[in-house]
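Final report, Chapter 2: Outcomes

The project's central promise was a pipeline that accepts a single protein chain and returns its three-dimensional structure in a standardized token representation, suitable for archiving and comparison. That pipeline is now operational. To close this chapter, we reproduce one record exactly as it appears in the project archive, with the input sequence first and the structure output second.
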Amino acid sequence: MASVELGRSEAKTGNITTQLPSGEVTHLSESDTSGSLGIGYQLNHALTLEVSYLELGDGDVTLTDQSITPTQSHNSVANISPVLADGFTLGVRYQLWQQEHISTSVSLGLITWEGDITSTYQA
């Protein structure tokens, strides 16, 4: 069994302007299109093992402040940037009920993920 999924991901950043030492946020993108590609193996009529790669997209923030150093700017970006990660998932799905083409199932899984933050300072 193979799966391809497309969706929307969002990072909750809260009120990030209160987290800044100074300056202001001129641009914030905390959501993006996400995608997943996976495979599964059905052990029996109710139990399926699944593994997939999950890409949640990219988020970004632009700050303006003339009074901080490049190091302070990079630290601010690292602290408040929305992180939409990517990684691998491992899961198990148990089908509770099925009637013709309709079913109900419960899933449990793990994700190992990585988030990269890139900061560029323009004086």
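Archive annotation: DSSP finds one helix and seven strands in the chain.
This record, like all others produced under the grant, will remain available to the consortium after the project formally closes.
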